[in-house]
């Protein structure tokens, strides 16, 4: 019995050892005091193919703007976003939309604000409307957060500037097992996928071009060292316990 107690104590000690994580592996922005008064560089995302836009045109005399506005299916349903997407302008693979009265408009390398200004100019210069107010919004912005977070999944957002930390917050924050020093971000840029690794334990993130996420970003939080060790250890522990059980049974039979 003494040997059994010794073995169980050893197993408990090994489990504790393999599940330990240090403070430096867990805390966010550990050098935050060095970045007080850091200016914020807001970056608006550039429009991409398959983005869906809501474009509204307003003027003093509302009737004259009707030919430039699509009739919304969601007008009687409280502005449901899914219905608005059906009525929105889908950007083609050629980076264009087809706008009423104006025809084909290029969206390549433009933000929503830049497209808004261009449509306003086209309406005024073409003599279509006087002093129009144009509003362009992206309807299908989303980010996917996977791995060691409390709520993995795909999240919609309507803001033009969303930070990596806000995206992590949408997913319920990292679990205690999330690898904070090596968060993978996958981003589509100019028709190809780009990857980068971010350390959220350092406030260097504030200066990174990846501090603000872009629509369709994928964020992957891998497990940290203790979690990986623990997973492997538990698998090996199961095998070890099985072997020990057989040996112990054999010893008890022999010594009877």
TrEMBL record:
Q: What is this protein called?
A: Polysaccharide export protein
Key words, A-Z: Membrane, Signal, Transmembrane, Transmembrane helix
Q: Which organism is it from?
A: Gelidibacter salicanalis
Residue ranges occupied by any Soluble ligand binding domain in the UniProt entry: 142-188
**InterPro entries cross-referenced by the UniProt entry:** Poly_export (IPR049712), Poly_export_N (IPR003715), Soluble_ligand-bd (IPR019554)
One Gene Ontology term of the molecular function aspect: polysaccharide transmembrane transporter activity
Q: Where are the transmembrane segments?
A: 233-254
- Where does the Polysaccharide export protein N-terminal domain start and stop, copy by copy? 46-138
The signal peptide here is: 1-23
Q: Keyword Membrane on this protein?
A: yes
